[in-house]
Specification:
alpha+beta, two-stranded antiparallel ribbon, 4 helices, 28% strand
Length: 172
């Protein structure tokens, strides 16, 4: 029992220290009403937008955990087109809508970013980053399974690829 308690404390300390070693990440969402596609499907639009923004903000912060703790990453999201397209479906009683994922409805996003060191010196910045994943939404069986568990899988994959390429030298 004592070993389990010690193990639990060690795991908790590791988790908290991992967060302490992360760069500070600030995410701003600018003019969300003008985004290309953040359309809710059979949900309240404001709730759907919040879910999307919260999910991607958390992912930016998770990516920031790979950067040195005394650095800061500021991201200003300026456009988003989530994977898939909204199409009507017709049931026996009424019409509804669903988001269809296919190879021509890829995710895209635009944002600005500034990456600074502990002294506030700019290490990297870009006022207009435009990303899209035209690689298709199919991929391997492993990615298909993972995508089913995360409604933002394709958007996060675009972010991951950009982040790993952009911050290759800074990643621990």
């Amino acid at each position: 029992m004592k070993n389990i308690t010690m193990l639990t404390v060690a795991v908790a300390a590791a988790l908290f220290s991992a967060n302490a070693l992360a760069a500070e990440v600030k995410v701003e969402w600018k003019d969300v009403d003008s985004y290309r596609d953040i359309e809710a499907v059979n949900d309240i639009q404001s709730r759907f937008e919040k879910q999307i923004m919260d999910g991607l903000t958390e992912h930016w912060k998770a990516l920031g955990a790979k950067l040195p703790e005394d650095h800061k990453l500021t991201v200003t999201m300026t456009d988003l087109d989530i994977a898939g397209r909204v199409e009507p479906t017709y049931g026996s009683a009424a019409s509804s809508h669903m988001r269809i994922l296919d190879d021509i409805s890829y995710p895209a996003m635009s944002f600005a970013f500034t990456y600074t060191d502990a002294n506030g010196n700019v290490i990297a910045e870009d006022a207009d980053v435009r990303l899209k994943d035209m690689g298709g939404n199919s991929g391997t069986m492993r990615s298909a399974v993972r995508s089913g568990r995360d409604s933002l899988f394709y958007e996060k994959r675009v972010m991951d690829r950009w982040f790993d390429k952009q911050f290759k030298a800074s990643i621990n």
